[in-house]
Write a structure and sequence with these properties.
By secondary structure, the chain is mostly helical. The protein has two domains: 34 residues, no CATH class; 75 residues. Helices cover 46% and strands 9% of the residues. It is elongated, with a radius of gyration of 20 Å. This is Alkylated DNA repair protein AlkB homologue 8 N-terminal domain-containing protein.
């Protein structure tokens, strides 16, 4: 028999006309009803917007970009660009076909990471 972990279960109510029914697992454990759920690496909110996911991956990629800029003290643009393409860009592009961007603010959030990296690399490298 398959054992289901009650702590890992959640219910996502999608839509305005959904009645937000409370569900139980077993006899006494009430399943939680969060505003958003992470499924297969993609953060899905109950209004199906991608804003929370875009903010999450932008923060994660920005941490990686700052780590790259702190780790490599040389001003070699090719080295920094290769490190960006290897470590930061896959974070931004992961599952992009699922959360395809439609909102301008989400596009700007993702593009700010690349703009930040480009600005820092060009500012700190000697010509």
């Amino acid at each position: 028999q398959l054992q289901i972990s009650a702590n890992k279960c959640s219910v996502l109510h999608i839509g305005n006309k959904n009645q937000n029914t409370k569900y139980k697992l077993g006899r006494n454990h009430l399943i939680d009803d969060p505003h958003s759920v992470k499924d297969l690496g993609v953060l899905i909110s109950n209004d199906l917007s991608t804003r929370a996911h875009c903010n999450s991956i932008a923060k994660k990629a920005l941490r990686v970009v700052n780590l790259i800029l702190r780790s490599f003290s040389s001003g070699n643009i090719e080295l920094l660009t290769r490190a960006y393409k290897t470590f930061a860009r896959p974070i931004l592009e992961c599952s992009s076909s699922v959360w395809n961007l439609h909102c301008i603010s989400d596009i700007n959030t993702i593009e700010q990471v690349q703009k930040y990296f480009t600005r820092r690399v060009l500012y700190y490298t000697p010509l």
